[in-house]
Amino acid sequence: MEPPRTAPRTGTDPAAQPRPAGSRLIGQLASFGLVGGLAFIVDLVVYNTVRATVLQDSPIWSKVVSVAVATAFAWLGNRYLTFRRDRSPHAVREGILFAVVNVVGLLIAAGCLFVSHYVLGFTSQLADNISGNGVGLVLGTAFRFAAYRWLVFSPRSRTLRLPHPARRTVRPDTGGPS
How far is CA 64 from CA 19, 55, 89, in A? Predict the structure, then answer.
């Protein structure tokens, strides 16, 4: 037995209406904040663990390791939660852009840590955390959200067609490959 057919939705049903752009942006900011908050905890725990154990005399490399781990976490969270509607079917291209954006974000955080630790001489672990995980985090986060939204997970990237190596164009005048 076939289920009863329902009438098509009309334009008056609020559930059928697209979300306003501002509402969508707020939703993205909220889930980006959640993913970012969790990634921050991952970054903080890994940084302090690595700095206290295997890289005791290297705050910069400790930060590199912690950001790499937190980036993998953030990739999954942003791809499958924050920007799930805008992610590209070209995951490799998107992953490369995501990595490039995060390298820049890493350079922002590491630059803040470098200036604090080596230029200003604030060498305590607290000072390193404030500069790398405080100031660097705020600046890097603002950069990342903008780059994710308008570059990595841009709605344009869903329709971007990459050339397929086996695909050949056929010239209309001769019917042969061009």
Answer: 39, 11, 29
pLDDT of res. 172: 56
Q: Tell me the Cα Rg of the chain.
A: 23
3-state SS, one letter per residue, for the chain? CCCCCCCCCCCCCHHHCCCCHHHHHHHHHHHHHHHHHHHHHHHHHHHHHHHHCCCCCCHHHHHHHHHHHHHHHHHHHHHHHHCCCCCCCCHHHHHHHHHHHHHHHHHHHHHHHHHHHHHCCCCCHHHHHHHHHHHHHHHHHHHHHHHHHHHHCCHHHHHCCCCCCCCCCECCCCCCEC
Maximum alpha-carbon separation in the chain: 78
Measured CA to CA, the distance from residue 64 to residue 19 in angstroms comes to 39
Of 51, 83, 91, the closest CA to residue 67 belongs to: 51
Q: For residue range 19-77, what is the model confidence (pLDDT) as tens digits?
A: 566 777 888 889 999 998 899 899 999 999 999 999 998 999 998 899 889 888 988 89
Q: What is the pTM of this model?
A: 0.58
φ/ψ (deg, to 5) at 70? -65, -30
Taking alpha carbons only, the member of 145, 152, 159, 147 closest to residue 97 is 152
